[in-house]
Amino acid sequence: MKKEINNFGCIEVICGNMFSGKTEELIRRLRRAKIAKLNVKIFKPKVDTRYDEDNIVSHNQLKLKSFVVDSTAAIYELANDADVIGIDEAQFFDDDIIDVTKNLSSKGKRVIVAGLDTDFKGKPFGPMPQLMCESDFLDKLQAICVKCGNPASYTQRLSKDDSQVVIGETDIYEARCRHCYMEPT
């Protein structure tokens, strides 16, 4: 029996730098929706292979089964029967993700999106700025600076690779505060 829910569609965005707990917060919200017996579908981009190919996984190893997609069109098609849609690593999707989230929310769906708001150069990352503007609810999380222990909003890349997208963890990235962050040269 399908659970009755109100027709309040919304877009929630969870953003911040690496190691700030974005995926952990996304998983927390999605688990709560499952407890409420809502139909939940979770998506992640094909490029995100850090911990697991089929699950969204937080740095502290919390995980939830997800659909791995290589296009935003696939999200729209697969999410039609869901009450709550979770999208992790949204910065890796193209700008079509903005229309997909707006269309799903206009159909009464709760869409929860998590992603990096800025890249390692401190520049806006992919569709995240537009998603933040479209959101009904916005949470910007911070990590802890590995150098001084203050709240950190920057992602410091430790390698010399200048590509915007380099998949990695603590071997390549650190959370840094504004004072300890060093602009790449």
Give the topology.
Blueprint: E1 10-16, H1 22-35, E2 40-45, E3 55-57, E4 63-65, E5 67-69, H2 72-78, E6 84-87, H3 96-106, E7 110-116, H4 128-134, E8 137-141, E9 143-144, E10 151-152, E11 154-157, E12 173-176
Parallel strand pairs: 1-7, 1-8, 2-5, 2-6, 6-7
Antiparallel strand pairs: 3-4, 9-10, 11-12
Helix pairs in contact: 2-3
Estimated share of beta-strand residues: 25-35%
Low-confidence stretches: none
Class computed from helices, strands and strand pairing: alpha/beta
What characterizes the major β-sheet? Answer: 6 strands, parallel
- Share in helix: 10-25%
* Backbone shape: globular
- Strands of the largest sheet, in order across it? 5-2-6-7-1-8
Terminal Cα separation, in Å? 58 Å
Rounded mean pLDDT score: 91
- Please work out how many helical segments DSSP would assign: 4
Order of H and E elements? EHEEEEHEHEHEEEEE
C-alpha-based Rg, rounded: 16 Å
Give structural notes.
There is one protein chain. Helix content is 21%, strand content 27%. It is α/β, with parallel strands linked by helices and 185 residues long. The strands form four sheets. It has a six-stranded parallel beta sheet with strand order 5-2-6-7-1-8, sandwiched between helices. Strands 3-4 form a two-stranded antiparallel sheet. The chain is globular, with a radius of gyration of 16 Å. The termini are far apart. The model has no long low-confidence stretch (mean pLDDT 91).
